[in-house]
Amino acid sequence: MTDFFAGISPVTYAPDAPVDQLVYRHYNADEMVMGKRMEDHLRFAVAWWHSFAWPGGDPFGGQTFERPWFGDTMDLARLKADVAFEMFALLGQPYFCWHDADIRPEDDSFAASKRNFEEIIDYIGTKMEAQGTKLLWGTANLFSHRRFMSGAATNPDPEVFAWSAATVKNCMDATHKLKGENYVLWGGREGYETLLNTDLKRERAQAGRFLQMAVEYKHKIGFKGAILIEPKPQEPTKHQYDYDVCTVYGFLKEFGLENEVQMNIEQGHAILAGHSFEHELAMASALGIFGSIDMNRNDYQSGWDTDQFPNNVPEVALAYYEVLKAGGFSTGGTNFDAKLRRQSLDPLDLIAAHVGAMDICARGLKAAAAMIADGGLEAARDARYIGWDDPRARDWLADGTLEQIETAVCEGGIDPEPRSGQQEILENYINRFV
């Protein structure tokens, strides 16, 4: 045991506890929602990178956190893992997620870094077995090191492509070994700054082949989890190839991967793309590629990805409404890809941030389930499109021609009158539940 969280008790569900006690007031893991335990609906995960590897910097300032495990040795990597699992136990978190660079020190060669990685994976595996915490997904950090300044799969240097492919292979092996339920490919620098030095067609082809190789390797090793892509627009690269769900779907179709790869959708990235979170979730569901979510929020007055813990129940409720409509999570879950503010220095801040976020998600889930049970939103949608139940309208879509439809308009006296979309009424309806 470490002493990092000394004096902090395991967090329990106690909705009537005094206001100064750190407890769950809405998240009750065993509460039944739509016939399933709340824990099994939400499938919460801690992000290793933000919780244990992030030093508290921002674009204008460096490290503010001082953690006893910061440093590039295997002893410190093991200490970081010890603290992580203590936090998982305090929170009752069922899952966690990592990048390779979060959990092992970078060494002076690929082979040495791989040895470090394999050693810490074995150490983490032992702790998982003892505690029962599971791996929601693993991924590779192909963006932080200077070698990735021009991308990984899309890099103009084939040696960087090769380094990246070898790294993904190792991370997929580790995820498989730890019985991870998904593997994520996040192209943090898969994009370009200027067309003056960029061959778009070549880079897209490289990215497509890279993803094909990852899928091929998944089947070769018998990994049963999902391969996920996480879209992100702009930041840090001006033009990201994986801009949003629709962009990624077009990419998957181009390379024959639409039945092999699903989406890991982040709230903050959706906002940066000019969408709402629920839009991206609904789009992924409609396209049949919904997989998992990263739950966080951005500061709406800032133009960059601030990765804050969620605190807006209406936003979260609309997101889980789309998740539930999509059938809920299969292998996916709710990963808190969120970090403390750089002034939140204390161990208690890290626990409290997750407790508050879990309560917000629990409130959102229950509101979403109540809306689905009530059926009012779906009834309003059905009523808006009821005209398409008419056999004539169905025929227009099935095999109608412009000439046939023109005849129907001219001879049938069609003269449509606009009908209200009732947006404000529906917004009032949502507010009844949140």
UniProtKB/TrEMBL annotation:
Keyword terms, alphabetized: Carbohydrate metabolism, Cytoplasm, Isomerase, Magnesium, Metal-binding, Xylose metabolism
Compartments, as annotated in UniProt: Cytoplasm
Catalytic residues in the record: H99, D102
Binding site for Mg(2+) 1: E230, E266, D294, D337
Binding site for Mg(2+) 2: E266, H269, D305, D307
Cofactor note: Binds 2 magnesium ions per subunit.
Cofactor requirement: Mg(2+)
Catalytic activity: alpha-D-xylose = alpha-D-xylulofuranose
Any one GO MF annotation of this record: xylose isomerase activity
E.C. number(s) listed in UniProt: 5.3.1.5
Entry superkingdom: Bacteria
Cross-referenced InterPro entries: Xyl_isomerase-like_sf (IPR036237), Xylose_isom_bac (IPR013452), Xylose_isomerase (IPR001998)
Similarity comment text for this entry: Belongs to the xylose isomerase family.
Subunit annotation: Homotetramer.
NCBIfam families: PRK05474.1 (NF003998), xylose_isom_A (TIGR02630)
Protein name: Xylose isomerase
Organism this protein belongs to: Roseobacter fucihabitans
